[in-house]
Amino acid sequence: WLSWGVGRSGCGCVSNLTGALASGEELGSAEYWVRHVREAVRFSDGISALRAEGVSVFVEVGPDGALSSMGAETLPEAAFVPVLRADRAEERSFGGGAGRRASGCIRHCWTRRCTG
Description:
Largest sheet: 2 strands, antiparallel
Number of strands: 4
Number of helices: 6
């Protein structure tokens, strides 16, 4: 049983399958996830959809910065911050990434996107 809801946060989810905002019904269906495994990832479309919604800072939580590099090629006007590194302790790497995200050159109001 899968379920997804916007809940109190007000944050949505962009599908890497469609490249568009996804509904809870869509994300909660087994068929969606079967397609997600079998079909191409639409990363560029997904981050472009987020940009159209006003997102200008993208924080990558993963073992390296591969998606941040790809994102910067697609949306050079946006900020991409990878926060984990395979060759560093997670706590140190995440703290450094969070610091870069919070620096004066990157301004973003989380409450504007996710109120609750």
